[in-house]
Structures are given as structure tokens and as C-alpha cells.
Amino acid sequence: MVRVAEPVIEVEELARTFHTRRGLFRRPGKEIEAVKGVSFAVERGELFGLLGPNGAGKTTTIKMLITLLLPTGGRARVLGHDVVKDARDVRGKVGYVFGGDRGLYERLSGLDNLRYFAELYGVPPRESKQRVGELLELVGLVGREKERVEGYSRGMRQRLHIARGLLHRPQVLFLDEPSIGIDPVGARELRVTVKNLVESGTTVLLTTHYMFEADELCDRIAVIAQGRIVAQGTPDDLKQQVTTGTVVEIEVFGLPDGVLEKVRAEPDVQSVAVDVQGQAQLLTVHAQPGADVTQAVMAHLEGSRFGRVITRQPTLEDAYIELVNAA
Amino acid sequence: MRLLRLVAVAWWLQLKMRSRSAFDGLLSLLWPGFFATTIFMMFRQGDASGPALLSAAVGSSAMGIWSAVSTTAAFALQMERRQGTLELLVLAPQPFALLLVPLTLSMATIGAYSMVATLLWGRIAFGIDISIADPAAFVLAVIVTVFAIGMLGMLIAISSIRYRTAWALGSAIEMPVWLICGFLVAINDLPAWVRPLSAVLAPTWGVAAMRAAATGHSPWANLGWCLLTAASYGVIAVLVSRWMVHSARANATLALS
């Protein structure tokens, strides 16, 4: 795929502060800085991921970019249009899809929902029917389109959301946690759809909690925590920023008392975590860069019954957790 | 042409959505029916007959349209907010006020069902002679009144974009409008200071036109004023909605959280 380095989303020191008030007469105010001056740029045809924990400012950032919220600082341009001054120009060229059950008319059929939004988003009448048909096919809702949305599963709703977001052929698509609550098969289909969109030239800004999704899909990622971008780059760049070396995962059945402390005391061990998985415990040991701690850890587990032992390189999730915790 | 198509398709789909619940449909017939019954009985006790009862029937039927719009118009945007579609409406590259026209017109259309039911109820249960002197003009007056009430409903709805609890406004003004617009009593019987208020409310002229058509008088002047006031609501709505949407974006009130 040939890309031209032309930013379609330019964000400079973008900030948003929310003011809340309580009480009726003497109303004490509270300020919440949701986004504290973030800057990034997304090129045409790129799939850019915005990762961060709940409340990090991902959705607020997206809502400023699609003109649903006014920034309280900084500036942003989408396809060359200022999101404050040229809101209407931005709206005609971007699509917005969010995750969850909301955002659809429950009492209407899937087909009627698409017909309604096609009118609202200015799809030419002659194209409307064909476009709706194409999108129903794309998201796999052909045959179910005449049923009311209130009877749809979450996955079907999410697919209908995507069809809605694509009705007017947006040049830039904002996907805000689109795979939340979808089963693995649905999530995989969604990833294929997103990949196809990017291949056809659509620029996508995606927020997600699922690291494998970001790792598989995103060309570049920005990690946002507490309203600030703490790291930015390709998934591989981010993995290299992790200060740990290899990760050893050992499935143990009945972890003896005191072993954790002994493993933690090993000189080349950086951190240790235990996750209970049914009858087994998964011991995850992060080693110092360049060190191999497998033998040392196994020595402490002598006499214990254990299952699989995996030694792997740090994943995007490891990088993400480290970056967010350090923020 | 494009805008007309948008309004027509959106009106039809909104109407479809609102007509899907049999429970809601029943209420929209029963509720105005109770008010109409009360009014017919009061007029009967006051020995009203002939044109006075017909006038009461027309007035109480208009109450049905207004009640359907006033109580639901303001709440409609709160519903859109709850189901997460308000943000999608704002995101549409159309003037926001235009998107509210089909929404409130669909409510007024449902109100028109209750109008027919009220007139039939008056005829069947109270024996009111529903002889309309100029049926064509009467139907036109009903259509214009439905449109005008829809436009007034749009003005009420707009405040809900910015203020999440503004839906209460619709219920608050439902009954005062019955009085101020002369649905029940003649406007001349109201205090003088109320009359300018009556004059700027489109339903006043709409109901007057319906009564004129029903009793064989010319409805055209009243219809003209009704259309003029309704059109002015449209202009006000466009201006106010721009400010309201801007303020909602600044104050983050388009979503629930």
C-alpha cells in the first residue's frame, strides 16, 4: 500500500476541562481536566490507535475531533477543517461508531435505521437504496434487516452501528471501542471489516482496550493516561520501550507458601504476578533486560506440580501496563 | 426538494417508531377523551347547545393535538439523549432545527388521531351535531394547525438540547396553552394582558380557523396568521438551535455522562 504523508488529523495541545456544579443555591464548582494538551497527527489511510484506561481521555478526545465537544485549549484540524470554526464541514466527512447497546432506534428495523440516517447524512436519494444494501451485505445483516433492532444481539447492533457510520462514505472513521461486548467471532469479523476499510483508503482512528486488537490492526498507537499522551509509535516501537526482558509464564497447581517471595528476591527478576485460573495459578515473572530467569524460578518450584511453561518476549499489553503505571 | 424529502422520510419513520407501541397508541386516544368528556359535560350543564357545543368539540379536539405535542416534544430529545442518538443527530451535516421538524410533526400527527377520536366521541356519546359548513377549509385548517403546533413543539424541544431537565417544560405549559389559545373559553373573556400572548401563539389562530370553517365563516385570515406565526417559530428555532447546540458542545450536555 502506497501512502502519501499527508496528515488528515492534526491535533496540537488539545485540552478539555469539564466544570461540574452541585447544590441549588450555593453551588460549589469542581474542575476536571479530562484532556491535558495532547498532540498527534494521523496520515491519510493510516489506522491510528488511541489506547488508555477508563477515564484516560480517549472518548473526550474523539468527541472534540468529531465536533461534539468544544475544546477548552489547543486546536485540531480534520481534513484541513478546524473542528471549532468549520464544524459542519468536518461532520459531512467523518463517521463515528461507538461500542455498546446505544445509538440506534430500537423500535425501528435495522433497514429503517439505515434509511433514516442515510437521509440525515445526506446520502443522495438515488444512491441510498444501493448503499444500504451494500452495507447490509458488508456487515452480514442481510436477511435480518427487516427485524426490529430491539430483538438484535449485541454483535448485530454493533455491526449495524458500523453500517450506519459508513453510510455517507466518510473519509475518516472514528471507532470508539467498537468491539466492546462482542463475542470473539464477531470481534474477528469486525477486525477484518476495519482492515478492509483501511485498505480501501479510509483513515481510521480507533480506541480500544484490547491489546491484541490494537497490535493486529494499528499502524501507529498513542498511549493516553490521565489526559496526557505518554508514548507514541508503532506497536513494535512501544514494545521496545518496555524496560523488562523476557517474560516467563508458569502454570502451577498448588503454589507452595513462600515461593513468591523467594522468586521476587532473585537478582534478575523485575516483577512477579500470580493469576488464579481455575485450579491452577499462573505465575508471570518479568526478567531484567538480557537476563534469563527460567532455571532460577523452576528451581524454587521443585516438588510442585506444574503445567505449561512459556518464555516469551514482552507484548504490547506488557508495554501498555508499564507505560500507564508509570504515568 | 432534498430538504422536503428529508422531512418527509424522517417524519414517516418517526411516526412509524411512535406508532409501534399499542399501549402508547391507546393512551393517546384515551387521555384526550377524558378531557373532552369533562368539557362536554361542563358545557351540557351550562345548557350549551348547537354552535357552542360544536365550538367546544373543536376546541377540545385541538387540545388532543397540543397535549400530544407539548408533553412529548420536550421529552423526545431527552429520549434521544438516553438512547445515544442525540449526538448522532447533532453530527448530521444538516441544520439541527430542520431535524426537529419531522420529529415534532410526527407527534402532532399522532395528536391528529386523537382529534378525530374526540370529535367522534362527542358525536356518539354526547350527540353533538358535527356538521362542518366548509369541510375542505376545515381539513386545511386542521393540517395547518397540526403543522403550527408541531413548530411550536419544536421550539419547546430545542431547550432540551442544552438543558437535560428542560423536558419538564412541556408538561408545565400544557394546560396554560389550553386557556391562552382559547381552546376552551373565548379569548375575549381572558384578561387583557393575556391577549398579546394569545396572539403570538399559532394554535390560537389555528383553532380560530377551524371554528370559522366549521361554522361557515371565512377561515383565511386566521389561517394566514397561523402560518405566519408558525413560520416565525421556524426562524427563531434555527437561530436558537445554533446557539443551543454550541452551548451544549461547550457544556458537554449532548450525552448523559
TrEMBL record, chain A:
Database matches in SUPFAM superfamilies: P-loop containing nucleoside triphosphate hydrolases (SSF52540)
One cellular component (GO) term of this entry: plasma membrane
Annotated keywords: Antibiotic resistance, ATP-binding, Nucleotide-binding, Transport
Location within or outside the cell: Cell membrane
InterPro entries assigned: AAA+_ATPase, ABC_transporter-like_ATP-bd, ABC_transporter_ATP-binding, P-loop_NTPase
Pfam families in alphabetical order: ABC_tran (PF00005)
Taxonomic superkingdom: Bacteria
Keyword S-adenosyl-L-methionine recorded: no
UniProt GO molecular function: ATP binding; ATP hydrolysis activity
Membrane topology per record: Peripheral membrane protein
Every ABC transporter domain range: 9-251
Main location class: membrane
Biological process terms in GO annotation: response to antibiotic
TM regions (residue ranges): none
Protein name: ABC-2 type transport system ATP-binding protein
Automatic annotation (TrEMBL), chain B:
One Pfam family named in its UniProt record: ABC2_membrane
Record field: transmembrane: 21-43, 55-77, 98-124, 136-158, 165-187, 220-240
Main location group: membrane
Topology versus the membrane: Multi-pass membrane protein
GO cellular component, one term: membrane
Keyword Transmembrane helix carried by entry: yes
Record bears the keyword Transmembrane helix: yes
Localisation per UniProt entry: Membrane
Protein name: ABC-2 type transport system permease protein
